[in-house]
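Methods — Computational structure assignment.
A single polypeptide chain was analysed. Its primary sequence is given first, followed by the predicted tertiary structure written as structure tokens.
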Amino acid sequence: MTINERIREVRKRLKYTQTEFGKRISVAQGYLASIENGDKPVTEKIFKLVCSEFGVNETWLREGKGEMFVSESDLIVLLGSTMDKLDDMDIRILTEYVKLSPEVRKIIKEFIRRVANEVT
């Protein structure tokens, strides 16, 4: 499978139309169709946008090795892409949060608990 075909796989797995997916990475539907069909090359910019916007594993996208999504981000990306209650910023925050080390996540949770206790 080529990198172009893997981009199509990501889009289909997330249940996006070409238009929706293209908007998320700032490309027109026709251009995305050309990428998916192998008529246009995947630029480094497109590659980086797909990985960062959707939590795609860089090695998988480049070489087809490993898992499609960055380990723990898989569930969040899939949920976020199908839940109307999460906006782009919510998805981005959750995706980045699960990439943090357990120690950093613990610090963040303790901070949120303190803030929540002060409010209530």
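Note: DSSP finds eight helices and no strands in the chain.
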